[in-house]
User: Which sequence fits this backbone?
């Protein structure tokens, strides 16, 4: 989307305040207008909606958790799945992690790169990643994700991506707003992963943070 009249180019910088840090994010002013501009053939091909453009409650809750518990993430090589505009991975970077951001949408990667530079004045590491075909061979100590279990068709691909890209005895953190559709995934994770911790955090919205170890 290079058209200057596109809603992608109508942006504002917002500051998100946490207990220990503030994070600046450039984001789209009118996400609904962006949705309206999606062509029918593009949607019908892959049901692509710009979920990446929103800062969802799960991301805010997870970012707060990371910044409150930096020792869990410091000096770890981390992959974020579905980075959106970068909030959670930026929080992990502040906590001292070495983060690689990933998303299926190039626009999401572009915004994340801008936001990373806005906060750190250096370049982010990022990859385009389709969970259905994770053409990426590096494995990570930790994989993080916020609110990515919103469609049934993604559950198996996300599980398989975790199996492929997480090191043995690595850790997965998933922040999820208790959607019914995600329940089969939680059952699926009983095969090959051990649930280490589960916290339900009521802040902006009730969000459950799951912590798993690969076994």
Assistant:
């Amino acid at each position: 989307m290079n058209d200057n009249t596109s809603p992608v180019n109508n942006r504002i910088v917002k500051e998100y305040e946490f207990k220990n840090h503030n994070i600046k994010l450039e984001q789209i002013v009118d996400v609904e207008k962006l949705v309206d501009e999606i062509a029918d053939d593009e949607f019908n091909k892959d049901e692509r909606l710009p979920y990446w453009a929103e800062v969802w409650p799960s991301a805010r809750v997870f970012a707060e958790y990371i910044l409150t518990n930096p020792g869990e993430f410091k000096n770890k090589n981390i992959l974020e799945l579905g980075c959106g505009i970068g909030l959670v991975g930026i929080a992990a970077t502040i906590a001292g992690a070495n983060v690689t951001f990933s998303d299926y949408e190039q626009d999401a990667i572009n915004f994340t790169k801008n936001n990373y530079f806005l906060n750190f004045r250096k370049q982010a590491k990022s990859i385009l990643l389709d969970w259905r075909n994770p053409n990426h061979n590096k494995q990570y100590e930790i994989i993080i994700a916020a609110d990515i279990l919103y469609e049934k068709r993604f559950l198996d691909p996300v599980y398989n991506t975790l199996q492929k890209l997480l090191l043995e005895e690595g850790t997965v953190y998933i922040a999820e707003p208790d959607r019914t559709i995600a329940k089969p995934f939680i059952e699926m994770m009983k095969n090959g992963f051990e649930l280490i911790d589960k916290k339900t955090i009521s802040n902006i919205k009730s969000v459950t943070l799951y912590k798993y170890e690969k076994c």
